[in-house]
Design brief:
With about 120 residues, the chain is of the alpha+beta class. About 45% of the residues lie in helices and about 15% in strands.
Length: about 120
């Protein structure tokens, strides 16, 4: 009995592989194998994903310009069509960023004190 279950499982797995590799045709028409995705040798471009994490405080125009410039640069550098490049911005509070050993909020507060005194 266990052998029968094993054979059934293998047949079921093979059927699933064929199903994923073939495009379903209307009844009565012959099904032809068609790969779901191109193989590694057929892929010409990968899709770069770029996340920019920065402190809050930039204007919408500044962020748009940054996104456009990074997207164009990534497309040029990788040879990928710009339509395939994904870039996004994640903003964090100044109290959650440290640069050069100093919390950014503290650095901004010190700079504000210097300009007012």
């Amino acid at each position: 009995m266990a052998g029968a279950v094993g054979r059934t499982d293998r047949r079921g797995a093979a059927a699933l592989r064929r199903l994923h590799q073939c495009r379903l045709q209307p009844p009565g028409q012959r099904q032809r194998a068609r790969p779901v995705a191109p193989g590694p040798q057929e892929r010409t471009h990968s899709m770069p994903f770029i996340q920019i994490t920065m402190a809050k405080g930039r204007t919408a125009d500044q962020k748009r310009d940054l996104l456009r410039e990074v997207s164009a640069a990534a497309a040029r550098a990788t040879g990928t069509p710009e339509a395939a490049v994904r870039v996004w911005v994640v903003e964090v509070d100044a109290g959650e960023v440290i640069a050069g050993g100093t919390i950014l909020a503290d650095k901004q507060a010190a700079a504000a004190e210097r300009t007012t005194s």
